[in-house]
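Render this sequence as a predicted structure.
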Amino acid sequence: MNRILRSSKAIRINNDDLLGTDLRFPLQVNNRGDLALISGLPNLRQAIIDIIEDHKGEVLFHEKMGVGIAEKLHRPCTDQTAQALAFLIKEQILKYEARVKSIDISGVAKPATSSDEQNTILLTVTYTDITYHHEDNFTYPLVLEAI
């Protein structure tokens, strides 16, 4: 908790408030029957994933926000494609997610070696938030359609 003095009164602020609260996706219901919420660092991770998955024009008042990763499913499974996607995602997150202090995204192509496997690009997202200066990461698997 941080304390802010205002008019000689101390106000307590929860750091999770600084990273915000939003609806949890996919939509869920909590034990009281209300829509489930997500706050703090998990909310930031969800927001980054939303930027990756949202299509341009899908977010009201931010018509240029979003990578639209589903539109990229018909690209070849190469390291060049992985690097291009990583660059595009990083550019979008730095532009539209002010809670991210720093971010690094790497992409690796995993072409199918048999008919049982799928062409996959693994995007590893490592980021630091501006509130806690906490570094977190996750891997976003993108399964490509056969072309």
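Summary. The chain has one domain: 2-143. The chain has a mean pLDDT of 86.
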